[in-house]
Amino acid sequence: QLQVVESGGGLVQPGGSLRLSCIISGSTLDHIHIGWFRQAPGKEREGVSCITSSGQPYYADSVKGRFAISRDNAKKSVYLQLSSLTPEDTGTYYCADVIVRTVAPEGTITGFYANAGSSWGKGTQVTVSS
Question: What is the mean pLDDT of residues 69-85?
């Protein structure tokens, strides 16, 4: 069963940057779509970004232009570069294997959600504060 371990979070000032890592085990990464989610205190978990097995990225509107997702299948890792951070980005960040929603004919990604039975890691805490 696929397992994930997130890392790279921390305390950063507004406008700062962080690079989160998601290391996968229990499966090869090549054919799996991976998504990043975050959960702020008192709020539901929300999808932030995902990357398909072919490397196509998708970003929620709230992070578009500020976050960048990438993957290294050889290292079984997916990364999320966070930039221009604001206090609203504070939360625990999780990665998981996901199902991607697309629309024809170009296959444009419109969203994603965690695969049923996804194994969630402990997450990594991102705190944006001055």
Answer: 97
